[in-house]
Amino acid sequence: MTSLYIHIPFCNRICTYCDFNKFLIKNQPVDTYIDCLIKELSTIPTDIDTLFIGGGTPTALNDQQLERLLKFIAQQFKIQQEFSMEANPDELTAAKIMIMKKYGVNRLSLGVQTFDNDLLKLLGRTHEEEDIRRAVDTAKALDIESVSIDLMYHLPTQSLEQVKLDLEKALALDIDHISSYSLILEPKTQFYNQYRKGMLQLPDETLAAEMYDYTIRRLAISAFQQYEISNFAKPGHESEHNKVYWQNREYYGAGAGSHGYVNGERYYNIAPVPHYIKAVQLGNAVKETHKVTREESMEEFMFLGLRMNEGISRWDFLQRYGTRIEKIFGDVLTKLEASELIVVTEDRIYMTAAGRMIGNDVFEEFLLSI
Ligand code: SF4
After folding, report:
1. Which pLDDT score, from 0 to 100, does residue 1 have?
2. Selecting from 3.80.30.20, 2.60.120.200, 3.30.1050.10, 1.10.357.10, what CATH number does the domain 2-246 have?
3. Where does this one sit in the cell (predicted)?
């Protein structure tokens, strides 16, 4: 059994902060792209635990394109557990949800980011606050089992009060999963260029930490357990697909720019759409492969696993690598435990709340090659 990620690299507008592999959908060879996806998907094992269609924006596809892709997936794969799709609120029509439902999608992940219309405009999003409520209500009315929304904090000009208001509005939707990500300025984005020219003011680090801390506390009193640095769920609604990544398990990836991890090897597909199409037509979309070394795998096991509140199991480490965790990371564990950034018990190792606040610094400690 394995997992599968499918990438739809098209969007109706390009957001100012986005560095994903995505292209404006206008004039793109979308039908040919779906032909190629179908060809690529035909080579992947059919017993699947979790499947995630992301992007880009899968809801940028028109109804016919969406149906063609989902119909193929439903015929081709036996999906045991979770079938998720990303969606933009303004593109998520009742017709699209009905198509998704018909072919087994049981979880929707909505790119909300904020309820503040001025901030949405600044982010370059195509939706407004009202679209969010309509999309969630429609998904619920049409019996989609689980609805998640993505929020962002540390946005230009954003105040703590705005973050608080976003959380109240998110909670009022009565959904079962919330992701909350800090804005990261990525090179080659509009925001990054504006920031470098001094045209963009971001909340300082102290305020960003307050926003994060408030988010954790507010969601905890509304039955949303934090289970990963940026993810919160009501019981039974964690993202099973994302847990595959954090537990460093293997998965397939299909589509332009997607990546996979199969038989100890990571692979990366060609990213530009025309090149991807040509490569699939010639029989292979993979641009690059990398055999993960034992050392790299141990590092990844630690810093991906520690992202989750439950942390990592010492037993899993021993089983995977045939050696006790102390033998490899003994000094690091002692140092981080003494700094109260991690907790070490008989069976598990996990980060403290203080550790999660500076997660990247903690993860760096596990790099064996430094
Ligand atoms: S954030 Fe999402 S919707 Fe916006 S450009 Fe990136 S992939 Fe497209």
Report:
1. 80
2. 3.80.30.20
3. Cytoplasm
